Structure to design on (742 residues):
């Protein structure tokens, strides 16, 4: 991708008669893209090295003619413009870098001929099984065929036969006949996932993508190869034959598995989520995401989803449950256990609730192993949000030992848990017996079973909100599917408990802008899709648990991970 | 708009007897009694359906009795009144002569209360699996009865000749393999 360049590094190139200033070294595909000109390509990917093996991006290039003796540019007397020496043969766009005065033609007859020729060769051995191919609808081969295909085949010989339905790994299925040997997947495995298992064997038209003998494509980033595969060769085993992509609605969301906050797109149809894919954000996740984050949507329809409001174990209604909770809180000795999984808005309202009840606040830290790429050690996606909204002042501990001690001392009699399983966070059965629990959460667990009041809430796919990732980047997610009957937006529940008039994220943000100095100038709608970097200096000295990941370097050395 | 009053002429004596009217009516009646019949004793008699008639959409099997639909869902996509609903799935493992086709519909429903008999599904089908044939009578006592499921669609569709046997060719090629 283009690095931010100093103005001195800009060079002017001319694409189809239009001048554009781009950083020196930008390849021609990216320069043309900035002008809105599409140069078709298969093997080129902005985040991978350039190999130039698909030949689809052939362009004509030329440079201004100079006098051999004086090095002065030669001016064409007919037009009065500098004379351009066009190269007699086409060049690949991905492998051609911007240099001063570079001229490019992408619409000339030669270029069109080249594209049509390349397409014809690519389609020679293509099985044309689009009706059963999961890539149909988002297939580059289909797209370019409409522009540069012949419409019929001149190939009368037998097509090549290659293995279909090969399982490359637990999540990826390979159809070798569809493969156009662009090697994007190989480069991704080697360069990004650092798990060099893929490669080509055999020669010529027998070339076949395969795994190294005895190895499998089973790293946690294997499904990115499916995303970048321009054709239907690599397909997701989980999404296989589930739904055609043209039926799916795309909703921008955020991966909540860790504090990296990878940008995602949720693909849904009629209230059912079918898959999650990464969304490009050059500051956060480039165009990648972990496989583990793609399975999070399965929890939406899980059997242990909470869908009934309960008061003392009996089915109830929201207002009754809120009243019951308020009554419990009036007895005093209240603690609020917030969550690093809640959105910024919810954490803000959790803080309001704690302030109203004069309750102490706790947060639980969930720490795992970071993989130095797109899964960080902090498995709470929004600990920074709790800091920004003032819910917590210091970093959370992995166990609620303080709370446990206060319960044992008899100071705490009611605990409001916002989606945290208190049993998993270290409260014993004896301590549970001493307290009344008010539980707001999405799934059943030990805490919801023990709670006096249970209010089912909504998952990240069913509501709007924002999260602050490890870079202190405020990113928003949108509602992809309607929430199940019986659940209530966390915002509404927290607002009712706290006695604040908040009905949705819009009204929540009015309060946040008024009360949180760091977010003073903002509304929900004006947060850009690529996120907004907040000023992290007030918290710079805190020992965050994250190690180094893609586009993130910890300010202070990472604390010892649990 | 102006109102134009029309004067109604009083009936003559002959007209008042109604006899000319009855006679002319009976004349028409008797004329039709002796003319060749244009109506048909439906449902005992059924009309001949001309080729190209667009009847109820049906799923057809190939001459070997194998299902042709691969659940590509193009008909579902193109269907203007959204009458078609397909749940795609894999070919069951027991259909050994079809496992290479990989994909087949798990469920295939056409809501005949929605269908407008436009024939776009037939036109768009890349596998020549859906046809609007000469079945024109769809009745039912409930809404559920008016939704044709996969079994019913195959029952209505029957078998049609196939010019291509596309997947058989693919199977032969796969079994033959590349002579390395």
């Amino acid at each position: 991708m283009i690095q931010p360049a100093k103005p001195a590094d800009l060079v002017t190139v001319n694409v189809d008669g239009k001048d554009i200033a781009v950083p020196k070294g930008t390849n021609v595909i990216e320069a043309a893209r900035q002008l809105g000109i599409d140069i078709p390509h298969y093997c080129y990917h902005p985040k991978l090295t350039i190999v130039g093996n698909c030949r689809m991006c052939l362009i004509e290039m030329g440079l201004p003619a100079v006098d051999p003796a004086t090095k002065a540019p030669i001016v064409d007397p007919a037009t009065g413009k500098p004379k351009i020496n066009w190269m007699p043969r086409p060049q690949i766009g991905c492998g051609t870098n911007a240099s001063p005065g570079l001229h490019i033609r992408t619409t000339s007859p030669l270029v069109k001929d080249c594209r049509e020729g390349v397409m014809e060769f690519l389609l020679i051995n293509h099985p044309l099984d689009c009706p059963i191919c999961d890539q149909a609808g988002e297939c580059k081969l289909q797209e370019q065929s409409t522009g540069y295909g012949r419409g019929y085949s001149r190939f009368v010989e037998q097509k090549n036969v290659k293995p279909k339905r090969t399982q490359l790994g637990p999540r990826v299925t390979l159809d070798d006949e569809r493969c156009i040997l662009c090697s994007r997947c190989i480069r991704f495995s080697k360069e990004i996932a650092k798990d060099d298992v893929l490669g080509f064997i055999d020669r010529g038209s027998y070339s076949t993508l395969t795994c190294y003998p005895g190895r499998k494509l089973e790293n946690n980033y294997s499904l990115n190869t499916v995303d970048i595969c321009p054709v239907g060769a690599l397909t997701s085993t989980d999404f296989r034959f589930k739904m055609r992509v043209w039926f799916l609605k795309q909703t921008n969301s955020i991966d909540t598995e860790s504090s990296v906050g990878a940008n995602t797109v949720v693909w849904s149809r009629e209230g059912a989520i079918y898959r999650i894919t990464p969304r490009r954000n050059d500051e956060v996740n480039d165009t990648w995401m972990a496989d583990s984050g793609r399975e999070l949507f399965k929890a939406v329809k899980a059997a242990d989803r909470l869908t009934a409001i309960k008061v003392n174990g009996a089915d109830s209604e929201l207002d009754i449950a809120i009243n019951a909770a308020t009554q419990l809180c009036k007895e005093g000795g209240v603690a609020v256990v917030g969550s690093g999984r809640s959105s910024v808005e919810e954490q803000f309202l959790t803080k309001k609730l704690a302030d109203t009840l004069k309750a102490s606040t706790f947060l639980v830290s969930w720490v795992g192993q970071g993989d130095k790429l797109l899964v960080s050690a902090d498995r709470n996606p929004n600990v920074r949000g709790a800091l920004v909204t003032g819910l917590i002042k210091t970093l959370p501990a992995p166990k609620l030992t303080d709370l446990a001690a206060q319960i044992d001392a008899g100071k705490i009699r009611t605990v409001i848990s916002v989606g945290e399983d208190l049993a998993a966070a270290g409260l014993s059965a004896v301590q549970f017996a001493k307290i009344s629990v008010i539980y707001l959460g999405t799934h059943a667990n030990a805490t919801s079973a023990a709670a006096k009041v249970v209010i089912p809430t909504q998952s990240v796919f069913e509501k709007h909100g924002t999260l602050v990732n490890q870079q202190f980047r405020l990113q928003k997610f949108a509602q992809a599917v309607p929430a199940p009957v019986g659940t209530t937006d966390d915002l509404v529940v927290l607002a009712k408990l706290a006695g604040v008039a908040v009905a949705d994220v819009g009204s929540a943000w009015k309060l946040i802008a008024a009360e949180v100095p760091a977010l003073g100038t903002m509304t929900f709608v004006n947060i850009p899709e690529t996120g907004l970097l907040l000023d992290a200096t007030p918290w710079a000295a805190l020992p965050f648990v994250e190690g180094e990941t893609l586009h993130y370097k910890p300010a202070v050395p990472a604390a010892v991970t649990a | 708009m102006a109102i134009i009053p029309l004067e109604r002429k009083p009936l003559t004596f002959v007209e008042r007897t109604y006899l000319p009217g009855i006679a002319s009516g009976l004349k028409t009646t008797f004329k039709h009694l002796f003319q060749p019949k244009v109506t048909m004793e439906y449902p005992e008699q059924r009309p001949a359906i001309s080729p190209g008639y667009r009847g109820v959409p049906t799923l057809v099997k190939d001459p070997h009795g194998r299902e042709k639909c691969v659940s590509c869902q193009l008909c579902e996509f193109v269907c203007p009144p959204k009458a078609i609903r397909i749940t795609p799935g894999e070919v069951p493992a027991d259909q050994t002569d079809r496992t290479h086709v990989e994909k087949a519909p798990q469920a295939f429903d056409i809501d005949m209360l929605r269908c407008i008999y436009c024939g776009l599904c037939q036109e768009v089908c890349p596998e020549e699996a859906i046809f609007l044939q000469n079945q024109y009578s769809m009745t039912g006592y409930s809404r559920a009865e008016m939704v044709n499921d996969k079994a019913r669609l195959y029952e209505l569709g029957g078998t049609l000749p196939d010019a291509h046997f596309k997947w058989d060719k693919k199977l032969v090629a796969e079994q033959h393999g590349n002579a390395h």
About this structure: The domain at 57-179 of chain B is CATH 3.30.70.3270 (Alpha-Beta Plaits). The two ends of chain B are 90 Å apart (CA to CA).
